[in-house]
# Entry
Amino acid sequence: MNSLNPELRPDRLQDPDVYDHRVLGTRLDLFHQQEEGPGMVFWHPRGWALYRVIEDYIRRRMREAGFAEIRTPQLLSYSLWEQSGHADKFANEMYRLSSHSSGANRPFALKPMSCPGHVQVFNKGLRSVHDLPLRYCEFGACHRDEPSGALQGLMRTRSFTQDDAHIFCTEEQVEEEVQRFCELLRGIYSDFGFGAPLVFFSTRPAKRAGDDATWDRAEAALAFAARKAGLDFAIRNGEGAFYGPKLEFHLRDSHGRSWQCGTVQLDFVLPERLEASYVGSDSQRRPPVLIHHAVLGSLERFIGMLLEHHRGALPLWLAPEQVLLASIGPEQVGYVRKAAAVLGREGYRVAVDDRRERLSRKIAEAHDQGVPLVAVAGEREMERGSVSLRWRNGRQEEMPLAEVGRRFRAEAFR
# Structure
């Protein structure tokens, strides 16, 4: 445990800079960034533990919602990006390189997003209308060459991971699929401690693929599905993706700021461009409708938001270390280590502080590091087979060790 941070004196607790995610990332020992990797993130053990908790939670929720997780390459031929239209859209933001071993100095690019890769998976095999809707998801590692002046900690990076999801469906299935995803999204945001999102409907941009008739169909279908899902949205003219209109979900944090996170995009363009098709009930081939989904957007950016929203005091289920077992004296060292092993076997993320240090300092340092629950063991607790629990908010109670794991399970795991 680090010593108490002088920046967190009571007279500074109202200073918004104290809750900047970059300050919190350093104080909580979560991540850092450096010149050798501009716009990239070096995750420390505690930060990676938080990252994996979020990733595992989203993975489970997507699986329960009927999505199959896939993995697509980060490096693809530049010709694929030209075919999809992303080369034109992201020309100045794509990292390009050549492969001499591929012959004729063939150009490649790191992916700025996962959509074309998901279409390639769909294209491997003959698809029938009976296979639809087909739902894929991926934690897609993406790269975009953002201007150095635009980089801002986790909020704007050059390397990031998107919780990409795509649904291949018929036009008749769009309404139900959008509704299902909106319900999923609301539940996830609530679990992270956010209220109802602000919703915006973004229409066709000036520079786009597809003709006006296609855009008319896409905008009408998405707006209808959004209303059926009970969404009240404002219009953002010209802010849609180059291949289709989109719904944007903005979350308000504890500071009153709004952040764009989730998106639902309706796409009649990319499947046709990338030659995706299924066999209909009339035995004719036709392109599927593609629905692009993301709940969090960029995981890095969402973690930055979470840290600022909760001011570093993450709830029990998200905290990198959920419980710290602290001994009062050297006689209890063996007991607290045994207690830590018991809670660890039950799935809790635990740490042990068995230093010869004052208990008050151990508790203060643990809470300063964002640990929500400290379990203290002295001579009395060791004799009773219990621990004294100290929460961040000052709440205290003594409890048998065997009961601790059961008591907080609903709060500790999502």
